[in-house]
Amino acid sequence: MSWLTFFRGKAEPASADIARDRLTMIVATGGNRRNGDDFLPRMQKDLMEVVLRYVNVDPSKVKISTERGTDLSTLAIEVELPPVKEIRRAG
Amino acid sequence: MAQVVTVTSGKGGVGKTTSSAAFSTGLAQRGKKVVVIDFDVGLRNLDLIMGVERRVVFDIVNVIQGEARLNQALIRDKRVETLAILPASQTRDKDALNKEGVAKIIEELSKEFDYIICDSPAGIEKGALLALYFADSAIVVTNPEVSSVRDSDRILGVIQSKSKRAEENRDPVREHLLVTRYDPIRVAKGEMLKLEDVQSILAVPLLGVIPESEAVLKASNAGTPVILDAETTAAQAYADAVSRFLGEDKPMRFVDAEKKGIFGRLFGGRAA
Q1: Is the pLDDT of residue A85 over 70?
Q2: Distance (Å, rounded) from C-alpha B182 to C-alpha B163?
Q3: Span B111-118, average pLDDT
C-alpha cells in the first residue's frame, strides 16, 4: 500500500483473494480429489444404464453436466426422449 | 523396514528436486541413513542439484535391466556420510522403468537405509505413478500460485487412489504439504496466496514453508543442497521441515513480512 492508493480511492480486490476464490471453486467443492480420477464418465455410464432400463433412448441424447459455484453446485442430467409412440417399457 | 517418502507435485518447476535434495540431506545430517532416488528418467537433474553429476556411472535403469548391481549405481555423498544417491538414466525413456524392477530396488535398499526418498518427475504419467506407488509418506511441494495448487490437489487424489497402500487397503499414505517460494512481502500486498488459504484448500498437514530465496539458485549453481548453506532462511526452513517430519514441534518461521523501518522502506532490498 503506497500513498498513491490514498488518492485512487477504493482499492481493487487483491489478486490473491481472486486466486483463492477461483481455487476454492474448482478444488474445495470438487470431486477433483476424492475420486482420484474424473468420476463423471463413470457416473454417466451408470446413469445411462438406468435410463436405458426404462426408456429406449439414443445414448447420444443423454447429456450430463456439472457446474461448480462457491454457494451452489449443480448436476444436470438432460435426457431427450423420443416421441411418445416410440417409448416402450423394457422388462 | 525403511520408510518410503515420495516428493511430488504434479506441476513442474515448483521445487521437487531442490526439496528432495535438501530434505534427504537434512535427514542424513540428523544421522539417518538416507538414499534419494531420481525417478525422472530421460530428464535427470537430481545429480546436478546434489553436485554428483561427474560421478554417475550407472543408473536406476541399468540396475533394473541387470546391467549393473545396485551398489555400483549408488553414489555415496562426500559431504554427509549417511547419504546416497541413485541417479536416473539420461538416455532411456520412461518405459525403461517398471513396477517389478522398482519393487526389487526398494526392497534391497530397505536393508541398508532408514529412508528412501523418491524424487518424482512432473506430471501424472508412468514415472510419477511409479515414484508414488511404493510411498508410505508423500511430500507435496506447492507454490502459492493457482496452477500449482490445483495440480497438488490432483496429485493428492492420485496418491489416494493409485498407491500400493490404497490398492491393498492399508493405512493411507501420510500426506505432507510443503509450500515453497513463499514471499511474505507479496502476501502482505495481496499479490500472493496466503499460506492459510493454500492449506485450507488442500487440507493437508503443513510440513514446512520455504521462503523465496536467492540462496536456492546459488546452491543449484554450485551443486550444493541448499540446506548445507546453513545461514540462509531457505536452509533453516528446510531444517525445520525435517525436524517436523521427525515428530518435533517447530513453529513456522519466515512466514510474516518484517515490519520495515523508514530506511527499509526507502531502500528496499530483499531477504536472502
Answers
A1: no
A2: 29
A3: 98
Owner of C-alpha cell 432400463: A53
Name the closest residue on chain A to residue B186, using Cα atoms: A16
What is the least distance, in Å, from the CA of A51 to any CA of chain B? 29
Residue of A nearest to B191 (CA): A16
Is B193–A22 a contact, with Cβ atoms under 8 angstroms apart?
Answer: no
Return the DSSP state at A5.
H
Chain A CB within 8 Å of residue B162 CB: yes
CA distances from B79 to A68, B76, B223 (A): 51, 9, 12
Instruction: Fill in the DSSP letter of residue B31.
Output: T
The region of weakest confidence among A10-14, B35-39, B131-135 is: A10-14
Percent of chain B with pLDDT over 90: 91
Question: Could you give phi then psi for residue B2, rounded to 5 degrees?
Answer: -70, 150
Q: A15 — contact with chain B (CB < 8 Å)?
A: yes
| Cell numbers standing for residue B102 | 522398482
Round to whole Å and give the CA distance between B30 and B25. 9
